[in-house]
From TrEMBL:
Major subcellular location class: membrane
Sequence ranges of Basic and acidic residues compositional bias: 444-463
GO terms for cellular component: plasma membrane
Species in which this protein is naturally found: Xylaria flabelliformis
Matching Pfam families: MFS_1 (PF07690)
Protein name, as recorded: Major facilitator superfamily (MFS) profile domain-containing protein
Topological relation to the membrane, as annotated: Multi-pass membrane protein
GO molecular function: transmembrane transporter activity
Amino acid sequence: MGLKDFIRSRSLRVKDSKRTKAAELTLRESLYPIALVTVLFFLWGFSYGLLDTLNKHFQNTLHITKARSAGLQAAYFGAYPLASLGHANWILRHYGYRATFMWGLFLYGIGAFIAIPCIKAHSFAGFCSAIAIVGSGLGSLETAANPYITVCGPPKYSEIRINISQAFNGIGTVIAPVLGSYVFFTFNDTTALENVQWVYVAIGIFVFLLAFAFFLSKIPEITDADMAFQASETHANADDKPFWKQYRLFHAAAAQFCYTGAQVAIASYFINYVRETQTWSTDASAARFLSGAQGGFAAGRFFGSFVMNYIRPRWVFLVFLTACVIFIAPAITQEGWTGMSLLYVVLFFESICFPTIVALGMRGLGKHTKRGSGWIIAGVSGGAVVPPLTGVAADNHGTGRAMAVPLAFFIAALSYAVAVNFVPAYRNPADAFSTAEVGLTGHDNLDEEKGISEKMADDKLGEIEDISSAPEKGTV
């Protein structure tokens, strides 16, 4: 194969009117692409965990308030909707998943390298700008990776699949605070800042190498035609309505905003909470306690994935999010080991909420899947809103009392968990996918040139041509 043929075989553009086998992948066929994309989940888990540790580190070294230190979270998560509703979603719809993965990794690497001179200059504003670029890259990755994991493989196991992949996100959040406790808090301020620089050098190099790995890899693209086929096969039939009438989707996006904001706020001020309620603790020990709590978070995802084999994911979601509300409430007034233990329990039950909102919110979107994923991931911008509010409350009333802020947002997110279990318009599409047989018995042989199943060519051709001729699609 010549260079020209090699580059052509790695084309990043895919037509959304072309149906491939991607909607019918079996468990075995989906293992490699899922494993490759799962590496991305670890990456942004590590980045997110590192951010929570840096929040306290910059309070110490730059002598800034808790509210101002939340500028890191505001910059990081505020960039998400710019990606998920803007540039990343455009690339996803016009080129495909692989191109979006590479674009997100490129932005992540650029942001990491820009952070280095900002750290040297002790510029908090500059570092926040670099973090915004990192957040834009990670927002791009999440815009593509979450829906990709959800639809890559049998739809019956979507929630289980995304929770297992997201568990590696949790592992990243465990490693980052441990690293931070040794390289940020056990040295003088000058040495600690130098260590932060080397961490971002390593991140930048790694993500550029990973972007090249995605360029070389042949992973199945999932088109709008694939998703329309999957929706029809599962009889969810939710994509026959216009996009702006997908009310379940927008409720899921609002729930994601509230839930993610609460989760990020708790993690961001966990170290502060421990320092204020455990008088004997140090910043380093509090960072290690955060790592332990994040370990419970990761364990919760594996546990939740196991339970979902036997209980409908929507019920597991309702129980876990309700538990978050129940256990965060007493942490507002409790101190010492009791308060910290309650936060450990909260992080355990937070575990499956984010990915399950993604999976349930995307049920039955069919040809609207790519646009819909952008809205749900845009909900992550709650992480830019709730932590600053919590920081203001912490500066004025203490970090313990400030936990009332994430409590309020947990309660708001709970409305979606209730709706998806008790409102038929929400519940029925979710259950239709839970009983689907697509991908469990293989798929039809496909004509690679036409991208259409030989068996279904006659009765599906008209449907695919309709998708192709829609104004908002074409080669979107």
